[in-house]
């Protein structure tokens, strides 16, 4: 008998066929996120669940007595209580590597559009406001040969460093708990203390996972250390940056601007002051959103799911994480 699994998101025919070969499955085919009540009903008798993001806590586990695998279709997994899952014999998996280049491209988009004011320029040209371009606001910051500080030199951080160093002749410095000698060698990177990275960078990118340690890693004091014209880019998780402190720092001119793909509350609230700021570029948590990357993530998640429910070893088991459910 094939193991039973639930797929909590529409997937391509190719991914569905692969799952069908190995499992009995049901699938949520609606565009909207699956409501919790339906999810909890569907996981009552399955061994595997594939889902973009699950909040796995006591409540979830009570509803899934046969569950062996939660296969996340994402890299970040701060919503998985990994201790609790281990106690209940549930393996968590995620989808690293296959989206690194795609997310790095988006980050470069944020770096370029926040420094060169691309969204305002587009708006002005389309509105016939060419004359606004005399405003000194538009004498913007060079990206090439500037210093990029990357906080979290992991898979994605390294791809950003590659683009910055080889493509834009940037000096790249980074802060990480462990050193990355190979990446240092390949891209001429230098590891520094967090304070130094903040003080010396023209662009600061936060690319750490969200954990107890990285929650509000960037707050009032850290923002104060940054150059007055520096731009903060956050494409990791909103809660890595203290958003109130960021709003204040932008308001007070402590830093020059921000490029944000992630927010403390998502979807970002319409009343969030960040949305009113001319020196803030926003995208809707869309780092991995190309057709290729999303398909690769879904296939990777399907492979992890199938391996986990058929007695194999999934390739991408999540590490124990000091989680924040
Ligand atoms: N916007 C989007 O659409 C996307 C966002 N993400 C987010 O990006 C995050 C990073 O992804 P990825 O690069 O694949 O992850 P990695 O695990 O490869 O990299 C994370 C890096 O952060 C470092 N790090 C972890 N904790 C700390 C700490 N307390 N202080 C300093 N450095 C730390 C790690 O090194 P060390 O442990 O040695 O310190 C590691 O180098 C994901 O967790 C996810 O939240 C991912 C994909 C898409
Ligand atoms: O935010 C996206 C992810 O894959 O993590």
UniProtKB/TrEMBL annotation:
Molecular function terms, GO-annotated: oxidoreductase activity
Domain D-isomer specific 2-hydroxyacid dehydrogenase catalytic positions: 5-319
Keyword Cell inner membrane: no
Keyword Acetylation applies: no
UniProt-listed InterPro entries: D-isomer_2-hydroxyacid_DH, D-isomer_2_OHA_DH_cat_dom, D-isomer_DH_CS, D-isomer_DH_CS1, D-isomer_DH_NAD-bd, NAD(P)-bd_dom_sf
Family per record: Belongs to the D-isomer specific 2-hydroxyacid dehydrogenase family.
Enzyme class, broadest EC rank: oxidoreductase
Keywords: Oxidoreductase
Origin: domain of life: Bacteria
Domain D-isomer specific 2-hydroxyacid dehydrogenase NAD-binding span(s) in chain numbering: 108-287
Protein known as: 2-hydroxyacid dehydrogenase
Enzyme Commission number(s) from the entry: 1.1.1.-
């Amino acid at each position: 008998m094939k193991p039973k699994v639930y797929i909590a998101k529409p997937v391509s025919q190719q991914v569905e066929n692969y799952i069908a070969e190995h499992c009995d499955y049901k699938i949520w085919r609606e565009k909207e996120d699956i409501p919790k009540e339906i999810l909890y009903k569907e996981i009552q008798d399955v061994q595997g669940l594939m889902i973009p993001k699950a909040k796995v806590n006591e409540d979830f586990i009570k509803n899934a007595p046969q569950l062996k695998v939660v296969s996340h279709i994402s890299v970040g997994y701060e919503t998985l209580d990994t201790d609790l899952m281990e106690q209940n014999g549930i393996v968590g998996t995620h989808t690293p590597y296959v989206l690194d280049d795609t997310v790095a491209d988006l980050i470069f988009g944020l770096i370029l559009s926040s420094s060169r004011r691309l969204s305002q320029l587009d708006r002005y040209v389309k509105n016939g406001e060419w004359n606004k371009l005399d405003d000194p606001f538009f004498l913007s910051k060079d990206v090439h040969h500037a210093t990029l500080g990357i906080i979290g030199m992991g898979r994605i951080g390294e791809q950003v460093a590659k683009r910055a160093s080889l493509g834009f002749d940037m000096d790249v410095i980074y802060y990480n708990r462990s050193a990355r000698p190979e990446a240092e060698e390949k891209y001429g990177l230098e590891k520094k203390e967090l304070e130094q990275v903040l003080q010396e960078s023209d662009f600061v990118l936060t690319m750490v996972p969200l954990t107890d340690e990285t929650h509000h890693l960037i707050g009032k004091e850290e923002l104060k250390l940054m150059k007055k014209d520096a731009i903060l880019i956050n494409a990791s998780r909103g809660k890595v940056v203290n958003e109130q402190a960021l709003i204040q720092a932008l308001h007070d001119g402590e830093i020059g601007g921000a490029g944000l793909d992630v927010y403390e509350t998502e979807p970002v609230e319409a009343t969030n002051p960040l949305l009113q700021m001319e020196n803030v570029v926003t995208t809707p948590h869309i780092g991995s959103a190309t057709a290729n990357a999303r398909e690769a993530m879904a296939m990777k998640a399907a492979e992890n799911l199938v391996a986990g429910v058929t007695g194999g070893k999934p390739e991408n088991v999540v590490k124990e994480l000091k989680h924040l459910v």
